Amino acid sequence: MNIDEFAKMFPDKMEEITAFVQGDTIKDIIGTEAVNHFKQSFVNEGFTDKTLEKWPEVERRKPESAWYKKGADSARKILSGPVKELQDSLTFQYIADGVKISSPKIYAPVHQFGETANVFGKKPFTMKARPFIGHSEVMKVNIENEIQTEIKKIIS
């Protein structure tokens, strides 16, 4: 395509780009990339903003701890219960100016922010914060790359 052909198509392409930016497709890209990035925190056992910040170690994996249990529990990843319930609960919803990432699990804030936890039959304790949702430069770049790819498809 030469510049004259592109100039004739430009108004139509701008309409497509405007529809893309103002529609749900861009929100789907943002939400999907964000949820995938935040789920990766559970795999990495830490949160990635510019670099990976590992979460504090859990007592169940420390042999000297009263919480230590030999076997599968001592090998399991942090915040990854037997069925990865918290990780799999992450979703996104459309909001007026973007998307909102959340988990319906009532214990999600306990892990995210480090709040008081009550374990059945145990004394309440303050959980160490293990953030898995938040601002991330790496995620921002991934989202920008996906959006650029889609815009290139529209203009080509």
Helix vs. strand class: alpha+beta
Which strand order does the major sheet show?
1-2
Q: How many whole angstroms does the radius of gyration measure?
A: 21 Å
Query: What's the N-to-C terminus distance?
Result: 9 Å
The number of domains: 1
Low-confidence stretches: none
How many β-strand runs?
6
β-strand amount: 5-15%
Mean pLDDT: 90
N-to-C SSE string, H for helix and E for strand: HHEEHHEEHEEH
Number of helices: 6
Characterize the largest beta sheet: strand count, sense, and whether it forms a barrel: 2 strands, antiparallel
The portion of residues assigned to helices is 40-55%
Oligomerization status of the protein chains: single chain
Give a short overview:
The protein is an alpha+beta fold and 156 residues long. The protein has helices at 3-22, 24-44, 72-75, 85-88, 108-114, 137-155, and strands spanning 46-48, 52-54, 91-95, 98-102, 116-117, 125-126.
